[in-house]
Specification:
Layout lengths: L3 H13 L7 H8 L3 H12 L3 H19 L4 H7 L5 H12 L6 H4 L3 H11 L1
Length: 121
């Protein structure tokens, strides 16, 4: 049980700073654990690495924003930490299970992705 509180602290910190540049060292410092123990504990309890968790959370937020706005893909890519629209599109397709569909086309398939997103909740 003593490992649950640092995990909750880390997740709260990540959620509060999700759109900012953050390092694993900064997150570990918030938990008062060494970097090694933090990474190990997070991976064991969350069944995913800290970097993968952050990436997934950003892509989920990007999907919500994609459905609710008419913003450009390039703007979403930069907002969620990707250097190019192509790298964002590739990560988006891989994460959300749309291998042949570009993110901009998702707006036209909003029913399918909305159902998928709500299944995550």
């Amino acid at each position: 049980m003593k490992w649950i509180q640092p995990l909750q602290t880390a997740i709260q910190y990540i959620e509060d700073h999700l759109l900012e540049d953050m390092t694993i060292e900064q997150i570990a410092a918030e938990t008062n654990l060494s970097l090694f123990h933090f990474q190990r504990t997070f991976s064991l309890l969350a069944d995913v690495t800290i970097a993968e968790y952050i990436r997934r959370r950003r892509l989920i937020l990007a999907a919500y924003e994609l459905l609710q706005s008419d913003g450009k893909i390039i703007d979403l890519a930069f907002k969620y930490g990707y250097d190019t629209p192509e790298s964002f599109s590739k990560a988006f397709r891989r994460q959300h299970g749309f291998p042949l569909v570009k993110p901009v086309e998702i707006r036209f398939q909003s029913r399918r992705i909305t159902a998928w997103l709500f299944s995550l909740a």
